[in-house]
Write a structure and sequence with these properties.
Blueprint (H helix, E strand, L loop, with lengths): L1 E5 L7 E2 L3 E2 L23 E3 L1 E2 L11 E2 L2 E2 L4 E13 L4 E6 L9 E6 L13 E9 L4 E11 L7 E5 L14 E4 L4 E3 L8 E6 L9 H16 L8 E6 L7 H11 L6 E5 L2 H10 L4 E3 L7 E3 L2 E5 L5 E6 L5 H10 L6
Parallel strand pairs: 2-4, 3-5, 16-17, 17-18
Antiparallel strand pairs: 1-13, 4-20, 6-7, 8-9, 8-11, 9-10, 11-12, 14-15, 14-18, 16-21, 19-20, 21-22
Length: 332
């Protein structure tokens, strides 16, 4: 399987020229130019990002019209691509004061009409609304136009990616307590495994994985038939996501260590594990702290074989619980 991604941007991923500051906990409660858009791989890249510590809901009234709730920021940049079918516009913008540095990424628009009359190359000023569980543009105003910069191409191939029915090779990981955890030790359990990055700031990407796993955990703990299920969130940034950080993150999410573990490993082990599950993680040669990656979530049966792999964010807690329930339960 092959995915070509221009400018390291796909439908549900973003290319950021910045690395986020570490968030203290989860964001929110549970609950181009043509750019070639491909599922299954949603790519994200970042180096430095500043995020305000809390997103405070604002109730602003303008006349008789209620303004969007959430923090609002002005965005000035150039349109790189437009995807009307997903209500997305890809912007290359300057620093967003108080929120993030300059970067290129896709934004959801609040209404389809906001895209009317716009095209790649347009210079715009927009209003970004950041709420607890979503972010979107509420206004876009064209201010001019300019030629688009040349685009680069990033190619992603599956290679020897594990497929349903394949046995997951044993690997040694480190959990949030600093203890070793081998993937083989999870045999005898149905396992849901996903990959995250603790510093992910926007609520609709890595934090969504956290919120959805939190919902799955609630279902597992209240369903006797799922008592054997274990959840595993793997950080592919061991240089920054230490055991101490993972533990603080797990506690903030209310993760039950008997059900849900947060793990990482050495860079070599993480590279092997991510490749096996089709997670593309690339460090920029000129800027080593910049990471380009996609998201994958898998279900593994009690014998250690892959049952299902989801790509990107296109799965729900209900779907995951249903697939865990349908997976063969351990014999004991």
């Amino acid at each position: 399987m092959f995915t070509s991604v221009r400018g390291a941007i796909t439908a549900r991923g973003w290319r950021w020229t910045g690395r986020p500051a570490r968030a203290a906990g989860p964001i929110g409660p549970s609950t181009g130019g043509a750019v070639q858009r491909q599922d299954p791989l949603s790519v994200i890249s970042w180096r430095t990002l500043w995020l305000t510590p809390t997103l405070v809901a604002l109730a602003l009234l303008v006349g008789c019209t209620r303004a969007p709730a959430g923090k609002q920021y002005e965005v000035v940049g150039q349109i790189q691509a437009i995807h009307p079918e997903t209500l997305e516009v890809v912007l290359k913008h300057g620093d967003i004061k108080g929120f993030m540095p300059a970067m290129t990424m896709p934004y959801t628009v609040g209404e389809a009409s906001l895209l009317t009359g716009l095209q790649p190359g347009d210079l715009v000023t927009a209003t970004l609304v950041v709420e607890e569980v979503k972010a979107y543009l509420s206004k876009i105003s064209k201010t001019g136009s300019a030629p688009l910069p040349p685009q680069t191409e990033v190619t992603v191939t599956d290679g020897a990616v594990l497929q349903p029915g394949d046995l997951v090779p044993d690997q040694t990981l480190v959990d949030e307590n600093g203890a070793s955890l081998s993937t083989a030790s999870l045999r005898g359990h149905r396992v849901a495994l996903t990959f995250i990055f603790l510093s992910c700031p926007l609520p609709e990407f890595c934090p969504l994985m956290d919120r959805q796993f939190a919902e799955v955990q609630r279902a597992v703990k209240t369903t006797p038939a799922l008592a054997d299920v274990r959840l595993l969130s793997v950080s592919f940034d061991p240089q920054h996501d230490t055991a101490k950080d993972l533990k603080a993150h797990a506690q903030a999410l209310g993760a039950d260590p008997h059900v849900w573990s947060f793990v990482t490993a050495t860079e070599k082990e993480i590279e092997t594990l991510t490749r096996r599950f089709g997670v593309f993680v690339e460090h920029d040669e000129q800027h080593p702290s910049e990471i380009t990656h996609n998201l994958r979530t898998a279900i593994i049966d009690p014998q250690g074989r892959v049952v299902q792999i989801y790509s990107g964010t296109d799965w729900t807690p209900t779907q995951l619980v249903a697939d865990l329930t349908a997976a063969p339960a351990p014999s004991h």
